[in-house]
Design goal:
- The chain folds into five domains: about 210 residues, Immunoglobulin-like, CATH 2.60.40.10; about 160 residues, no CATH class; about 140 residues, no CATH class; about 150 residues, no CATH class; about 120 residues, TATA-Binding Protein, CATH 3.30.310.
- Helix 7 packs across helix 16, helix 11 runs antiparallel to helix 17 and helix 18 packs antiparallel against helix 22.
- The strands form eleven sheets. Strands 23, 24, 25, 28, 29, 30, 31, 32, 35, 36, 37 and 38 form a twelve-stranded mixed sheet that branches. Strands 39, 40, 41, 42, 43, 44 and 45 form a seven-stranded antiparallel sheet that branches. Strands 1, 4, 8 and 9 form a four-stranded mixed sheet that branches.
- The radius of gyration is 44 Å and the shape is elongated.
- By secondary structure, it is of the alpha+beta class.
Length: about 950
């Protein structure tokens, strides 16, 4: 060790010794003695005397004469001396404790006598469950107050504050926090609030403790009072049981009435701004109905029933107020989005109406202005925007869309390539062709447009979807539970990866304690299960053990069924013992009394069972645990399955918990006869974020808090299907009507995607315009529906999300209808395999070109195809034909069919196009013939020949309506 290090160490030791000497110098000693008497002057034996500073400094008891003596050394500037007496013969407390402050600034000996006064007891029962909380309230204070001025009652220095924390009398006297000692014959009320906590620190010096002390209040729930009439008044030794549920429910009823009034005022304000709030008004009415009659239920001591009603009303009230608070902000944001879509709609209408640029511009502007004015009157919240700002937003939106649509063709550039249309250019051409088709068939387009318009209006004005958070109560499973009662499990864990599948949150001790605190509970049974695993927890010989069950034999409601499943040996009762399946006796050569080891835990076999998988727990599921199975290794996919009976070991709860990765998975709660199981289960689910199953009369129901999507108004599926069928009919008629046009498209080089794209473009244009205008017209129905006596119970769709949804429904209906029509009309529109593709290879001085032909021919259609092609080509064999087919020959080469011919097109202005061609049809392994055309000649001539022969192939497919295999 260096010199510098030694100096530092000495300095540290010196500082520590100085600090210790300072503290020793500031410590003082105190000695207190005296007598303690009852109200009648008789000495009290075994009265408790405690000296409190920051810690408990000293404690003693009185003797037969009521005499006590205690001494202590403390660093506090003052201490509290408590005197407390409880007669073990009586149930409650007959005497009020006493308290006095003693100065400990210097060494002293104090003589202090006490005479305790008569008292009574208040015993608080029930769970503290405020309507807004889903957590167990563990910090609370009971303040005994004067009924006249509301001040805390005191007897000398003894202040009547009880509850939890470090600053109430329950802490200093070691009382149950729900027990209150009250002065006899004194009117009082009890104020309930969150626990008061002192900012207390262990004292280092007297000055630092004084400066750092203070108090704060932990706000976890609203204050309320427990009082009847002008107050309670108890005689000496009297005990008053106060069920806290009654008073917290009465306080919540008063508070929710205020919240309801605030919500109604908010609803009226929102309605005055032009919003349609019929659904919200109905929800408030439902919340009021949930509250009606609750005061009667409280008077009848149906506290759990009343709690379910007030909790559900509170959650519905929160949902309504949340929707009301977001309406204005959503409308303000959505208006900007809506302007853009209105501008797009106006521009699309202009483009559909005319091909002249000036006329398109005028129609676009002429369409947008009335739409903007219409929005001004029907869209809620738009009137809050100044007119100048409103129309400026509209003008910017329209100019922006016009600029984008005029710039798009220039950005796209060249749109035609050798193999067809390229990228964005393809979209421009297809939509241009679709637009012209709609212009030529105005009546048909108008009818389709009207159906889409009606669909979108119905969706916007007559349907509603919303998510809400509240109690979900459903039937669970079909198996018959073996016992009536309530099962509690922790919330579901979302696995982070495949290995986490089947994992569960273990039940903690606080959950068990909370279960006991519910009304009418007579038994709580814990059950342990293994966490599902790919690997067995152990082996008995060569036999794997994948499942472990741990039960409490003395309280498990299913224990009689487990006992009856034992076919040999003794029922499970002792710690360290287990039950195995009866197959183990023979397969693993085991006997009763043998020992097995599971994950290092030794278990003695008490018996063998059979048929335990048929035992159904209160959730309607088997009591057997689960394990993991790797169903795919790359990528890894794991499934969770129920263990077989012969893979399970049953032991006691305490023994099972010693096994690695075995935890308490559920608790079964049994109630007193006559207690409403369903209402108690719902109350438990509403007050905590647990999953609760209610088993009654052989049926299981699950209750839990969660989000759910609810629909109101009329179902949209019926008009949606009608529109799809209308579009299918319209598109089929259009395609049959344009059969010749489709042939021309194919022959000039449009591949099937291009041809199908023309029809889909028509559908998309109708969907976008119909959806946009339908949404706008749907908004206009809300002001009309407000004045109806039977207004639809729907929420107004002011969010931009609903605009997108409206367009999605409209476009989806026409596109889906078009796709179905295209599929049904494959004979008219080529399949996607029919592409115009010209490949080449060069050999010497000759040029060879391969053309992919857009057809696949089944064997039964081969002769028909060959006859058609041959007959068509023979039409051009005349000397004066154009083009002229020369040397037409057909032959077979094994399973292949070969057709050869010479194509000759003589034109004085364009020159001669001549090719030598071979068409080969080869049968593949599926029995399908795929033709290919090989041409010898110049590239331009080969392309002309390919176009000519493709047209023949497409004509055959069109006339025969054959779908490509």
């Amino acid at each position: 060790m260096g010199k510098r290090s030694a100096i530092v160490l000495l300095a540290i030791l010196l500082a520590a010794s100085l600090i210790g000497s300072c503290e020793a110098e500031e410590s003082t000693s105190i000695q207190v003695e005296g007598f303690i008497y009852g109200p009648d002057g008789e000495p009290l034996q075994n009265a408790v005397v405690r000296l409190w500073g920051f810690y408990l400094e000293a404690e003693t008891f009185t003797d037969l004469r009521g005499y006590y003596k205690l001494s202590s050394t403390t660093a506090e500037v003052s201490c509290q001396l408590y005197v407390f007496y409880d007669d073990p013969v009586t149930r409650g407390y007959d005497l009020l404790p006493s308290q006095i402050t003693l100065s400990t600034r210097e060494d002293s000996t104090v003589s202090m006598n006490f005479t305790l006064q008569y008292a009574a007891t208040v015993q608080v029962t029930g769970q503290l469950k405020p309507m807004e909380s889903t957590k167990k309230i563990t910090k609370y204070a009971f303040e005994v107050v004067n009924t006249v001025d509301g001040r805390t009652l005191q007897s000398g220095e003894y202040s009547l504050m009880y509850g939890t924390g470090m600053n109430v009398q329950s802490y200093f006297l070691d009382l149950d926090p729900m027990t209150l000692i009250i002065p006899a014959d004194t009117p009082f009320a009890v104020k309930v609030s969150s626990s008061y906590q002192h900012t207390r620190f262990p004292p280092n010096t007297r000055r630092s403790y004084r400066l750092r002390s203070g108090s704060t209040q932990i706000e976890t729930f609203n204050k309320f009072s427990m009082v009847e009439g002008e107050g309670f008044k108890l005689g000496t030794g009297e005990i008053l049981d106060l069920d806290i549920r009654k008073y917290v429910l009465m306080a919540d009823l008063d508070r929710i009435a205020i919240l309801m009034e605030e919500a109604e005022n908010e609803l009226s304000e929102v309605e005055e701004r032009g919003f349609y709030v019929t659904a919200e008004r109905f929800d408030l009415l439902e919340a009021k109905e949930s509250l009606s009659g609750l005061d009667v239920k409280i008077d009848a001591q149906k506290y759990e029933d009343a709690y379910v009603g007030i909790r559900q009303a509170y959650l519905k009230l929160l949902s309504v107020r949340g929707r009301l608070n977001t309406m204005a902000s959503e409308a303000n944001f959505s208006l900007k989005i809506l302007f853009i879509f209105a501008a797009i709609t106006a521009v699309v209408l202009g483009n559909l109406s005319s091909d002249r640029s000036i006329l398109k511009f005028l129609i676009s502007v002429g369409s947008f202005v009335p739409i903007a004015l219409y929005l001004r009157f029907v869209f809620p919240g738009s009137t809050l925007i100044e007119p100048n700002s409103y129309f400026s937003m509209g003008a910017i939106s329209l100019l922006g869309v016009l600029f984008f649509t005029s710039l798009l063709p220039r950005v796209v550039g060249d749109v035609v390539g050798e193999g067809g249309f390229a990228g964005l250019g393809y979209l421009v051409i297809v939509f241009s062709m679709g637009k012209r088709s709609l212009q030529r068939r105005r009546l048909r387009s108008m009818f389709t447009f009207t159906t889409i318009l009606t669909l979108t209006m119905s969706f916007v004005a007559l349907t509603s979807f919303s998510s809400s958070y509240g109690l979900i109560f459903n039937r669970y499973g079909t198996a018959r539970p073996e016992a009536d009662g309530i099962m509690v499990r922790m919330p579901v864990i979302t696995p982070q990866d495949e290995s986490g599948k089947g994992a569960f949150s273990p039940i903690i001790s606080q959950t068990v304690e909370w279960s006991w605190e519910n009304e009418g509970v007579v038994n709580v049974a814990e059950k342990a299960d293994n966490t599902p695993s790919l690997r067995p927890y152990g082996r008995v010989g060569e036999w794997p053990i994948f499942g472990v069950i741990g039960v409490q034999p003395e309280v498990e409601p299913l224990m009689p069924l487990i006992d009856s499943s034992v076919v040999e040996g003794e029922p499970l009762r002792e710690e360290g013992t287990c039950l195995l399946h009866k197959y183990m006796r023979n397969n693993a050569n085991l006997e009763i009394g043998d020992q097995i080891v599971v994950k290092g835990v030794p278990l003695r076999i008490a018996g063998f069972f059979g048929g335990i998988g048929r035992i159904i727990d209160m959730d309607g599921e088997t009591i057997l645990p689960s394990y993991q199975v790797l169903v795919n290794s790359d990528p890894p996919i794991i499934e969770v399955r129920v263990c077989s009976e012969d893979e399970v070991v049953i032991t006691t709860l305490e023994t099972a918990l010693h096994i690695e990765r075995v935890y308490v998975s559920r608790i079964d709660v049994e109630l007193e006869p006559g207690v409403d199981l369903e209402m108690t289960g719902k109350s438990m689910a509403l007050s905590r974020e647990y999953r609760v199953w209610i088993s009654e009369e052989g049926k299981a129901h699950i209750a839990y808090m969660g989000s759910q999507i609810g629909g109101k108004g009329f179902p949209i599926i019926v008009p949606w299907i009608i529109v799809i069928l209308t579009v299918i009919t319209t598109m089929l008629n259009s395609m049959f009507e344009r059969q010749r046009e489709i042939d021309i498209f194919s022959s000039i080089g449009l591949n099937p995607m291009h041809i199908a794209g023309v029809f889909l473009a028509e559908a998309s244009l109708l969907g976008v315009t119909g959806g946009s205008i339908g949404y706008l017209m749907g908004l206009g129905l809300y002001p009309l529906m407000t004045n109806l006596v039977l207004a639809p119970l729907v929420s107004q769709k002011v969010s931009a999300i609903w605009l997108v949804a409206s367009l999605g429904i409209a476009v989806a209906s026409v596109v889906l209808g078009s796709i179905i029509a295209l599929g049904w009309s494959v004979g008219l529109t080529p399949s996607l395999t029919r592409r115009w593709n010209l490949g080449d290879r060069k050999t010497g001085n000759k040029e060879h070109w391969n053309t992919t032909l857009p057809v696949k021919i089944a064997e039964e259609n081969l002769e028909d195809f060959l006859a058609f092609v041959k007959g068509y080509l023979e039409m051009f064999t005349d000397l004066h034909s154009y083009p002229r087919i020369i040397s037409l020959k057909f032959r077979g080469e094994g399973e292949a069919k070969v057709l050869s011919f010479t194509y000759d097109a003589r034109d004085t202005s364009m020159g001669t196009k001549w090719t030598s061609n071979v068409v080969t049809l080869v049968r593949n392994e599926h029995g399908i013939y795929i033709p290919s055309l090989e041409s010898i000649g110049k590239r331009d001539a080969a392309r002309t020949t390919g176009t000519f022969f493709r047209k023949i192939v497409l004509l055959w497919a069109t006339k025969h309506g054959k779908k490509s295999p």
